[in-house]
Write a structure and sequence with these properties.
198 residues, mainly alpha
C-alpha cells in the first residue's frame, strides 16, 4: 500500500503540474468538445509512459547496475527541484489554471489527434513520467503497485478535469487554492525525495 500511495501522490503531483495540457483539456471540456475522447487519450498516454518509465529503469538495473545510484540521485535532485518550485509558487501565490472561454469544437478524430500532439510533443511529459516517475517507481519495494497508483492518479485527474469542467473552472482559477495545493505538493515531493535518498 505504501508503494501504491507513493505512486498516486507522485503521479498526481506531476500530472497536475503540466500546465499547457491541463489548460487545453479544461478549455475543451468547458465547451463540451469530445470530453470522453480527450480523457481517454490523456489517460492512455500517461499510463503507457509511466509503465515504460518504471520498467525500462528496472531493465537498466539488471543490465547496467552501476547506473542505478546515478538514476536514484538524479530522481532525488529532480524531486527536490520540483518541490522547491512548488514551494516558491505557494509563497508567491501566482498559480491558477485559467481556461480559454472561446473554443472551436472539432470532430472527435481531430480532437484525439490534437490531444495526442499536446501530450506527446511536450518534453515535460517525458521528463516527468518516464524519467522521474520511472526512477522513483523502480526504487519501490513493489514497482507494480507504484505503477498502478501513478496510473490511477492520471485516471482520477483527467476524469475529474473533463467530467467536472464547469465546477472545476471556478475552483482551479483561485490563486489561494493553488497556493494551498502547491504547498501540499512541495511537502509530498520533499518527503519522497528524502525517502528515496535514504
Amino acid at each position: 500500500m505504501l508503494s501504491f500511495f507513493t505512486g498516486f501522490t507522485v503521479g498526481l503531483s506531476l500530472i497536475v503540474a503540466i500546465g499547457a495540457q491541463n489548460i487545453w483539456v479544461l478549455s475543451q471540456s468547458m465547451a463540451g468538445a469530445n470530453r470522453l475522447v480527450i480523457a481517454a487519450v490523456c489517460i492512455l498516454c500517461d499510463a503507457a509512459l509511466i509503465v515504460t518509465g518504471v520498467y525500462s529503469v528496472q531493465l537498466i538495473q539488471q543490465w547496467l547496475p552501476p547506473l542505478v545510484p546515478v538514476l536514484t540521485w538524479a530522481g532525488v535532485a529532480m524531486l527536490s527541484w520540483l518541490a522547491f518550485g512548488a514551494a516558491q509558487r505557494a509563497w508567491q501565490g501566482q498559480g491558477a489554471l485559467l481556461a480559454n472561454s472561446r473554443v472551436q469544437v472539432h470532430s472527435w478524430q481531430k480532437t484525439a489527434l490534437t490531444a495526442l500532439a499536446i501530450t506527446l510533443l511536450n518534453p515535460h511529459v517525458y521528463l516527468d513520467t518516464v524519467v522521474l516517475i520511472g526512477s522513483v517507481g523502480s526504487a519501490q519495494s513493489e514497482p507494480f503497485c507504484f505503477t498502478l497508483g501513478a496510473c490511477l492518479a492520471s485516471l482520477c485527474w483527467f476524469s475529474a478535469l473533463t467530467g467536472l469542467a464547469p465546477k472545476l473552472k471556478v475552483w482551479l482559477s483561485s490563486p489561494l487554492r493553488w497556493r494551498l495545493f502547491d504547498a501540499l505538493v512541495a511537502l509530498v515531493l520533499t518527503g519522497i525525495a528524502l525517502k528515496l535518498a535514504v
